[in-house]
Sequence to fold (233 residues):
Amino acid sequence: MSGGLYERLFVRWSKRASRRRLDELIAAAAERYALARRSEETPLVLNVGAGGAIGALLERAGVRARQVDIDPSRGPDVVADLTDLAPFDDGSVSALLCFEVLEHVADPWAAAREIERVLVPGGLVIGSTPFLLPEHDAPADYYRFTRHGLRRVFERFEPLEITARDGQLGAALVVALRLFLADERSDRLLAVLLSPLLALLSAPAAALDGLLRGQQGTTGYFFVFRKPNAPRA
Fold:
């Protein structure tokens, strides 16, 4: 099987499986927190980690955020690091979005302080981070956060949501798909042979995951924290 066809069929399949629930959570949050309306006003909405599938999803939801990324090759509106948002003034941002970014930040506590600085009182930080997912974008892949770890990072914020993207069965299926289909070391012949079995297991695993979802395993967490209206000491 050619590399291009393999990429289209198997790698994209594994990535869609790992992102399915996350896309639903992002779309729901865009509506719940009126992000489209916020982005028409000042202060700003920032999307840290510019472009890609998440950027396209936000556009479809009507969210017109300023794109921020550390990598200029991704074409962001502003080149900046989450730990140093110097281009933005204190209290100038209404909502900061950081989906699948925090695990790549060497000092997430510094990032939380900088997010707190740029947000208006009552402003939101909305994001996601993986938990039971393989290492990716090495070597800049530093952390896997539990819900308790996220509370510690954003301890100066009010937690509004910390939601597991799936349960243990869903996570196991995604890990299997990533392991056998998307890992660059995957044996492509083995992937082709296993793909019917993985496809057969996908629907019942997803159904059972919804019924038996536990708290001990998930591919990742979706979170929303709010900066308090009154400054904290």
